[in-house]
Every structure is written in C-alpha cells, then in structure tokens.
Amino acid sequence: MTTSIGYLGPKGTFTKLAVDTVFNGETKRSFDTIPECIDAVAKNEIDIGVVPLENAIEGTVQLTVDYLVHQVRLPIIAEIVVPIQQHLLVNSAFKGNLSHIKEVHSHSHAIAQCHQYIHQKLPNAGIHFTSSTGRAAELVSTSEQPIAAIGNKLAATEYGLTVYTEDIHDYPNNHTRFLVLAKDKNLVKINLPINTEKTSLLITLPSDQAGALHQVLSAFAWRRMNLSKIESRPMKTGLGNYFFIIDVDQPFDDVLFPGVKAELETLGCNVTILGTYPVFNIAL
C-alpha cells in the first residue's frame, strides 16, 4: 500500500520542497493550513504530515507548536532541515521595474525574512500576507496587476513565474526546520544520512514555586545532557502560565531520560515526551 503524505500547500511551498526532497513515490496531498494537515494525520486521512516548525531568521512557527500541544498530540518522527532561498517572483508578462510593483504577497514569515529588501527596494509596495509562499505565487500567476510574490524557484516553475531577483532574504544562513508527524513511525522511510538525533520534551512547571525553572535545567545539566533549545509558550489558562518545549541533543535512552523525568516529577512538573527522532539536513 502506498504511503500518503500531507504538507502545507499548495504547490511551490517550502514544505512541498522538503517533501519532494525526502520522499519519493508516495501519494502527496496539499492542505491550505497547518491545522488541516495535522488534523488529517490524526483522523487517519493521511499517514504522514510535514509542517514547518522554525525558521533561523524569523523563529518558531507558533501555530505549529500551539496546535500540537493544545489541540492534537502527534508523535514527532523526524526533522528535516532545509536551506531557504527567497526570491522575488513576478508574472511572466511583467515588463516593468521595481518601482512599478504595487503589492508584495507571501507568508508572514517569508515577508519578515526579506524585510530589508522590501524596505530598501520596494518602499511603496503594499504588503499582503497569504497562507503560504505557494499560495502567493499562485495569486501572482493569475493576476494582471503589477504585483509580486516572495517564494522559491519551485514555485516559479510550478506557476510559470519569472524570478525577478534572487536571494532577497536578509541573512544568508537561512534554514527552516520541518517536523514529520505520524502515528506509526514504521511508515516513515527516509533513506538519507542522519545528521544527529534529538528528543523533544513538553514540561509544565509547578505554580508558586521559586526557582523551579532553574531546578529543571539543573536536572539536565548535572547529567551533562546538552539542550539545543528551550522555549516558553502560554498555557492559555491565564496570564503568567507557561509550558516549555525543550530539545535535547540525544536520543531517548533507558537511563538518563527516565532519571530526568522522575526528578522533575518529584518537583511537581509534568513531563511529556513529544518525540525522539533523527534529524536530516538537506542540501539543495
């Protein structure tokens, strides 16, 4: 049976680029939003979902984190890191120059990654946010107005657009992390070298306990477990209530992680393992 993979679409998004780079021969289905893709995995409409998690310039895709924590809990099976190259895309019929472009369309993260270029080169263009870079490219392809999209070369190819200016992102080391979500990890087959392995934890602290976060970090520190990321997000239960997402740079084992979990639970923390998984770095 063919494995089905869902991704944030439509054609031409960076998520689709990640999926095409890693998976071959599977049935692929696009979704308009991140929650729709996650829900489809939860409802068994697809086997695997691929959604963006974090960009090196713009930071965490908060919708992905919040939806996985508050709405649908799915195991993280793998992580794909993809270099991001943002280009200014125009309709192939466009013959003007930058001063003629009246609007720029793209996902909010893509717009933010190209803030300086837009500020300096397109100061009079209106900014319009879309659900994805692919959707922006699709919009430009069907418009007769002098508008542009920010997206990748896959989007330009898919929608017959012209790359007006290449590499307009503000910083060169631009990468995005994508999560691979699935109920059954055996369905995820990625035949690429593993760059590293990590484990992601969801931790909530006990209320009204001074120094709780310090004690949490100490539980990892004295075991010499390296944390590559720690991020707080609102619990949505009131001001001042947060949960923490912690990434540990090693796979789950039967000694260190159970020890951390037991120590933190003794402090009154709740600990949930979101996934222990390989990380694949993709070179385009």
Q: For the CA atoms, what is the radius of gyration?
A: 21 Å
User: How many strands, which pairing sense, and closed or not: the largest β-sheet?
Assistant: 10 strands, mixed
Top CATH class of the largest domain:
Alpha Beta
Order of helices and strands: EHEHEEHEEEHHEHEHEEEHEEHE
Tally of separate domains: 3
Mean pLDDT: 92
Instruction: Spell out the CATH superfamily of the largest domain.
Output: Periplasmic binding protein-like II
Assembly state (oligomeric): single chain
Number of helices: 9
Unreliable runs, pLDDT <50, ≥5 residues? Answer: none
What is the terminal-to-terminal distance? 29 Å
Extended strand count: 15
**Helical residue percent?**
25-40%
Instruction: Label the CATH architecture of the largest domain.
Output: 3-Layer(aba) Sandwich
Class of secondary structure makeup = alpha/beta
Strand content: 25-35%
Shape: globular
What is the CATH third-level topology name of the largest domain?
D-Maltodextrin-Binding Protein, domain 2
What does this structure look like?
The chain is of the alpha/beta class. Helix content is 27%, strand content 33%. The protein has 3 domains: 95 residues, Periplasmic binding protein-like II (D-Maltodextrin-Binding Protein, domain 2, 3-Layer(aba) Sandwich); 79 residues, 3-Layer(aba) Sandwich (D-Maltodextrin-Binding Protein, domain 2), CATH 3.40.190.10; 81 residues, ACT domain (Alpha-Beta Plaits, 2-Layer Sandwich). The protein contains 9 helices and 15 strands. The strands form 2 sheets. Strands 1, 2, 3, 4, 5, 11, 12, 13, 14 and 15 form a 10-stranded mixed sheet that branches. A hairpin with a 3-residue loop joins strand 3 and strand 4. The longest helix has 11 residues. It is globular and about 65 Å long. It starts with a strand and ends with a strand. Pathway: Amino-acid biosynthesis; L-phenylalanine biosynthesis; phenylpyruvate from prephenate: step 1/1. This is Prephenate dehydratase. It is an enzyme of class 4 (lyase).
